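Reopening: structure tokens for the fe (ii) ion complex, inputs below.
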Amino acid sequence: MARPTELLKQDHRVIERMLKVLATAADRLEKGQEVDISVFDRGLDFVRQFADYTHHGKEEDILFNAVEAAGIPKHGGPVGVMLEEHDEGRKGVQKWAQGLEKYKAGDKTAAAQIVRGARDYVYVLRNHIPKEDDILYPMADEVVPLVVHTQMLQQFETIEQERMGSKREYYVTMVDNLEKELGLK
Ligand SMILES: [Fe+2]
Ligand SMILES: [Fe+2]
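Re-run output (same inputs, fresh job):
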């Protein structure tokens, strides 16, 4: 049986590829090199739906609760730190989204805000993901009873279905296409 944390790690590997896309696009936009602004639109859609609503949803609504139920308090411990980092990431996303709106309305100086917001997001997530992979997930594997692991797998499936429908493939293909467009593979 796959562990629920294995599935979350698979999400991380896709998210990391998008972080590379975003970091590359932000560098190019900052340097005034040619970059299709729709990269930031598609990236925003991915980050909101795949990374935040669905992946962070699985963590915040399911995994973190199971860790708490296993006796590790949510606040003041590693789970609390993870929650704060999710919020930090959201602030970057908001900055980026606002910049993008202004840019698309004709204000080209808003490019700087897109760059800053996207970079903030990349920075937060690049620090966050290894902490989950190396510390929080192994801890969850250790403390959460196996019977709950089985329930979590079911709950992950439900959340993914409710929040992303059958669009996982769509988002993975999006990442593939962006990597190709930016010459990353
Ligand atoms: Fe997280
Ligand atoms: Fe995560």
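Helices lie at 4-30, 38-69, 78-104, 111-143, 146-164, 168-181. The chain has a mean pLDDT of 97. Marking as resolved unless the reporter disagrees.
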